[in-house]
Amino acid sequence: MTVDGQSFLIEGEDLSDTSHTGEYLACMLLKTMDLVRWSLFSGITSNNTGNTHLARQLVSREVKTCIPMSDVCHHLNLLAKDLAKLDIFKDMINDLHVVITFFHKSTQATDALETSQKMLGISCGLEGIGKTHFATICTAAISLKQCFPALRELNDKHSLKFLPKKVMILNLFKSGVIGLTFEMNINQFVQVEGPIAKSIVCLESTQSNPADVYKYWIAICGSIKQVLDDPANGFTTKDAGIIRRVVNARFHEQLQDDPVDCYLAAFALEPRK
Question: Is 180 in a helix, a strand, or coil?
């Protein structure tokens, strides 16, 4: 990527039949960088798996001007996954999977939902939970939250037909205790993960730079702190403490435990206002 935000693919290689050692990846990268000139590269980024992390460090040792940086979007996605695994969200996540899977497999239910959405003026449908995109569990929860009115209407009309072992899912869209608890848990999850998902979208931009990484991390931590500190959001002291520990661990891992303080330095030296 150039200074003005242009992205270029210099070379690609099929490594499906090759051992992905850090040393091999580093040699491959240095060979590719030779096509342009080492001195023109100022940074290298990757996720933090063992081989890619080692390759990043080896390249930076050979090219002294190349600053090693962990991939912030991948790191934030790991944070989102960590939070989704917490016990406080466990039951809600399981129910979310069941609902999303049901609608993705049932054409009749999907058509009924789309009709109900149009009548209620809801423009967004249910989002799937994928493995190749970041924070899809959050976008799926947001989409379900937006579709609640349409889902309740379908349930009231008895238009949703779940298998006998999944029929209890219908209670999620009723006005009783189970339905209200599910909606509250969805709201809590979106409030915590929303800032992370939004930051990933912004940081995937070709116009973002290392200074933005630090700024968005601060914004994420500040937003989550406000959510947890507000009694109206319903987080217990214990649950809030667990969420804080998870967020702080990932924050320290990327911004404080890393031997290179490039994100803080870029934030302090950035000329943009």
Answer: helix
- CA neighbor of 265 nearest in space, from 104, 27, 43, 7: 43
Helix-then-strand count for the chain, H and E? 10, 2
- Residue 245 amino acid letter: R
Strand partners, 70: 46
Q: How far apart are CA 203 and CA 216, in angstroms?
A: 8
Which residue has 């190749």 as its token pair? Answer: 132
- Output the six-digit token pair for 244: 């804080």
Give SS3 for 70. Answer: strand
Amino acid (1-letter code) at residue 226: Q
Closest CA to 203 of 254, 246, 253: 254
pLDDT > 70? residue 162: no
**What is the pLDDT, as a whole number, of residue 163?**
61
- And the tokens for 177? 């205790």
Q: At what angle do helices 136-156 and 87-105 cross, to 10 degrees?
A: 60
DSSP strand E in the chain: where? Answer: 43-46, 67-70
User: Residue 32's pLDDT is what?
Assistant: 85
What is each CA distance from 133 to 140, 225, 266, 271, in whole angstroms? 12, 26, 27, 32
